[in-house]
Design goal:
This protein is of the alpha+beta class. The protein is about 45% helix and about 15% strand.
Length: about 625
């Protein structure tokens, strides 16, 4: 049941207030990932605000598992309604067309890039926001990634991993954008409406909600985004419906992936924010101490009963070469300013605690220490640190991307049912024709089937390690070659690859047989013709078939009569071939001697022509 705009505004205000603590923790992680945090330092007159000079361990803790997980490309499987049928309705061929249609939608979504953002969201926030939209330019449903900080899905218990039945996405838009796209807001929201008229700000942002449920998608105005004047304090004041249209998917097109934690959505990184800030502060203090050791403070000891003073009233820096003349002074000294070595030890300890808490090992950053120097040992250590985290990201992607694929198939069938597509993508090579109404087919009871499965063949591994593991399993005869092709991350069409390998093997056999036949007496003209056909772009099987057909036609054809000056027709000569190899055409037929019937006829005609009684 769809909600009115005032109900949507009230519900969004409740969700925003309820999720404020979670969003604040997510913002803390985001700011440290982006390096937007100023180091908190003691208030000193000569201090200049300085960005963090400590290692960006929060950013590294996000990047490493996300980049590692992105290396492996998932596979899409679509089952046939009747695996025994090769072609036609309910067949393997139609299932393959649905699979290629999904890969085409992924390609139009630029998913090889967007999946990296989803993994970064999961690593940083423990949640992400995915939505399936209709691309009216390419006429294809596509996936897009939304900002989890602006996503407000239906509240659920931690143990409830089902998809949300509704979700609201909040976006900040300028007043110019609002007036240009929704002219009905000009009277309701004039310039400066969100502030005092005297302090009108042309750069003011207004929050727009995109509400999605199973029935409709509603776009509405929430209110100004300005501190205490935020729309959450009075959600009904600015509430205004801007657009409403049916949801063709029949269910909420928003998908909110999240990690499975103990009792609530929480990022592991949010627990080490204090470590990161403390490390940055200690680093800044160490730099200040080093700076003071380079330019130490000086002091003057006065003579007894005297007041020291500079002769010219100015202290000259030593780099100038001028001499500082001091009267009534007994001694001039320098305060030692060597940095405290204990601070460096504390920094190392804080960094180690942070790395241990998030599983961030030095080898992931390209460095190592201690006695670990072998490649095998480094790989094992990196695997222990990264593989479980990567496997978790892969498992999350498998489950939620499968749901996204169902929405894509629904979008195909509901929005462009009769459009004829010729789909192909690098994710699933090969072009096929696809008509949604036909190939997204219904089962016997009329229910449309959207079954599919997104899977990582070996979750937690990258493509190099996966190749090694699959090769070892194949060598130990734990899997078949067909299973190996299905498991490898770069083989998106195992059945097609198997057929292609078989064809290539048969082509090799054909070439071997052709070479043996040439040695045994294949006519040079036929061999040359095969080469010519291959140069023209024919496959070797097509070239052999065509050359054989032409040879048969040549051998069965009668040669024309010899021209003037020729003893016999040239077509009957073997040329470079050995006589009898088949390079010659048939010669003109020889005149055979008269048969018995012709001789009897001649005798009869002769008897009739002779005089009577002769």
């Amino acid at each position: 049941m769809s909600l009115r705009m005032d109900q949507i505004s009230a519900e969004m205000a409740r969700r925003r207030l309820a999720q404020s603590p979670l969003v604040e923790r997510m913002i803390e992680v985001r700011d440290r990932y982006n390096g937007d945090v100023i180091v908190p330092v003691p208030e000193l007159d000569d201090d200049i605000p300085m960005a963090s000079l400590a290692p960006l361990l929060i950013a590294e803790s996000v990047e490493h598992p996300a980049l590692y997980a992105t290396q492996m490309t998932p596979s899409i499987s679509v089952p046939a309604l009747d695996p025994a049928l090769a072609t036609g309705r309910r067949s393997v061929d139609w299932a393959m067309r649905r699979r290629k249609a999904l890969a085409y939608a992924w390609d139009k979504s630029w998913w090889e890039l967007l999946i990296g953002r989803m993994f970064r969201h999961l690593a940083a926030y423990a949640t992400s926001a995915l939505c399936v939209e209709l691309d009216y330019i390419n006429k294809v449903p596509r996936m897009c990634i939304r900002d989890p900080l602006t996503a407000y899905p239906e509240p659920k218990a931690a143990e409830d991993l089902s998809l949300p039945t509704n979700c609201g996405f909040v976006q900040g838009k300028s007043l110019d954008w609002l007036h240009a796209h929704f002219p009905q807001t000009i009277d309701r929201v004039p310039r400066g409406a969100g502030f005092a008229a005297a302090n009108a700000n042309e750069g003011e942002l207004w929050d727009i909600v995109e509400w999605m449920d199973a029935d409709e998608i509603v776009v509405g105005l929430l209110g100004p985004r300005d501190g205490t004047r935020s729309w959450t304090s009075d959600p009904m004041r600015w509430s205004m419906e801007l657009a409403r249209y049916p949801n063709i998917f029949g269910r909420c097109p928003a998908i909110i992936p999240r990690r499975v934690t103990l009792d609530r959505i929480i990022s592991q990184l949010s627990n080490v924010i204090g470590h990161s800030d403390l490390l940055a502060k200690l680093m800044y203090l160490d730099i200040r101490a080093t700076e003071r050791s380079v330019f130490p403070d000086k002091y003057v000891i006065a003579a007894q009963g005297q007041n020291p003073r500079l002769v010219d009233g100015v202290w000259h820096d030593g780099a100038t070469g001028e001499i500082n003349l001091v009267t009534d002074a007994q001694a001039i000294g320098v305060l030692p300013g060597n940095p405290d070595q204990g601070n460096k030890i504390t920094m190392d300890r804080v960094e180690r605690n942070l790395r241990t808490s998030v599983g961030l090992i030095p080898q992931a950053g390209g460095e190592t220490y201690g006695a670990l120097r072998t490649g095998r040992g480094i790989d094992a250590l990196m695997g222990a640190a990264l593989d479980p985290r990567t496997a978790e990201l892969h498992h999350i992607a498998e489950r939620y991307l499968t749901e996204a694929n169902e929405l894509i198939l629904i979008g195909y069938r509901k929005r462009w049912p009769t459009k004829s597509y010729a789909v192909s993508s690098p994710l699933d090579p090969g072009t096929v024709k696809f008509v949604p109404e036909t190939h997204i087919e219904a089962d016997y009871d009329g229910t449309v089937v959207y079954e599919n499965r997104v899977h990582y063949p070996l979750p937690g591994l990258d493509d190099i390690n996966a190749t090694q593991v699959i090769g070892q399993m194949l060598g130990a005869e734990l899997i078949s070659k067909r299973d190996a092709r299905r498991l490898h991350p770069h083989n998106h069409d195992p059945e097609g690859t198997e057929r292609q390998i078989l064809v290539e093997q048969l082509e090799t056999f054909a070439l071997t047989a052709l070479a043996q036949r040439a040695q045994q007496g294949l006519a040079p003209v036929d061999y040359a013709r095969i080469i010519e056909l291959v140069y023209e772009g024919k496959r070797i099987d097509e070239a052999i078939t065509q050359a054989d057909r032409e040879a048969q036609e040549r051998q069965a054809a009668e040669a024309p009569p010899p021209e003037l000056g020729q003893g016999v027709p040239p077509e009957t000569m073997p040329g470079l071939a050995v006589p009898g190899e088949g390079a010659e055409s048939m010669g003109p037929p020889a005149i055979s001697p008269p048969g018995e019937s012709l001789q009897n006829m001649r005798a009869l005609v002769g008897a009739l022509q002779s005089p009577r009684g002769a």
